[in-house]
């Protein structure tokens, strides 16, 4: 063992040396000033308090990169309290370490983003804190050990292995990017972490933060939202200059700038469908339960349901409204066989995907385009199970396929820029002839559901059109084209691959039944195998047995 470390005084040791005992680690903390934010090396939107212990990001969602004013010891916990979290942006705090001395950096060298701008440079290591941990007053602690492994913990819970391969042969400064929904953080007094033994490491959770490839997506989404916000501010400024037009910036209506009802929306709507009393705790209803509003400052659990099932062929019309706040995110829509009256408020999660593990039938759709205040959405379930939607009277095609053999309730989650949802009413439609494209009376290019489906499929973490039963059809981008029904005594159709054997296999997760078992097993083994009908990735094939 290296005994030279033992004879060297604690105060004279480099920051990157390892204290040899818990007593010595406590001695290091006793003589070392707690870390602070570097007063000069910071992003242009960062404001520090008088003691450089609290960093606040002003304006925008980025330019919040900061560093500690001194190197961090091995095993020294950098402890951050999340003082303010503003939901609506995409992504949360980024944190890690760097071998570069912030005192040698100029303001021009500090980019807008830690990820990917800094982490693509040598000597910088950082990743994102999962958004579910970015909760106000949570305490994040992260540290690096002598093996170059970075761990973090939330509220002193079990450590999570966050990063590997950090260069620990020299001093390391902590890197903190006050990004996205994270608005303000405070550095707390340091503590030393215990060594994570091999046995304990085997039980340590791996980080569930976003992979690096998804940081560009978060940055893009936030930039788009910020650009839209600038356009909205310019428009409001121009309106304020119109003579005789009074404006009040202190009163923000629940649904501002309401537009006239869009063309194509029926003039007479039935108003017997309302929101069900069971709702997320962050939702407020109007007295007649036709309008649902969120508390925009803390709008996490915002599930709302219809108070009765939606009839087959019945169109539901809803109007959205938002405050124009600089938030990212909007609306989710879903169908369920679960009667909302059987649910309790404390069972309703912030993310509707958590409901997919329940025994009932649930389908969730997220990939709506950017909506404006006053936009009117329509939803209709066709007899064949296709759910079609429209915006402001214009058909947008099919969202998903559902099982119509049971009663189906509609549900929404309201978040981000959307702060209100109003039920306008319903209308029972006459039978609709569905073209092979999946859109009533149109071609497949009349619908943007292909694009929406691609967005859902692009990230395994956001596959939100899921069902609890493998046999249920799952949001194909276009409608399957089935041959005319044959007599019950005939075969169940030919395999779409070999055109010889009888169809006896269903594809999971899309639910299409178009293969024989032999071809299904062969197709499943192929790289990037996908359904011949909807092109959705094949996760499994299931043989069906009939009496």
Features:
alpha+beta; Jelly Rolls; 28 strands; 7 helices
Secondary structure layout plus pairing:
Layout: H1 4-7, H2 22-31, E1 37-42, E2 46-48, E3 54-57, E4 65-68, E5 76-85, E6 94-98, H3 114-118, E7 124-128, E8 139-144, E9 150-154, E10 160-163, E11 173-177, E12 182-187, E13 191-192, H4 198-203, E14 205-206, H5 215-240, E15 275-279, E16 283-285, E17 291-294, E18 303-306, E19 314-322, E20 331-336, E21 362-365, E22 376-381, E23 386-391, E24 394-401, E25 409-414, E26 418-428, H6 449-457, E27 505-508, H7 517-525, E28 540-543
Parallel strand pairs: 10-14
Antiparallel strand pairs: 1-4, 2-3, 3-12, 4-11, 5-8, 5-12, 5-13, 6-7, 6-11, 8-9, 9-10, 15-18, 16-17, 17-26, 18-25, 19-22, 19-26, 20-21, 20-25, 22-23, 23-24, 27-28
Number of helices: 7
Subunit organisation of the chains: single chain
Shape type: globular
CATH A-level architecture of the domain at 37-222: Sandwich
Largest sheet: 9 strands, mixed
The number of E-state strands comes to: 28
- Give the helix level as a range of percent: 10-25%
CATH topology category name of the domain at 37-222: Jelly Rolls
What is the CA–CA distance across the termini?
74 Å
CATH superfamily of the domain at 37-222: SPRY domain
Function: E3 ubiquitin-protein ligase involved in regulation of the Notch pathway through influencing the stability and activity of several Notch ligands.
Organism: Ciconia maguari
Keywords: Cytoplasm, Ligase, Metal-binding, Notch signaling pathway, Phosphoprotein, Repeat, Transferase, Ubl conjugation pathway, Zinc, Zinc-finger
Pfam family, one: Neuralized
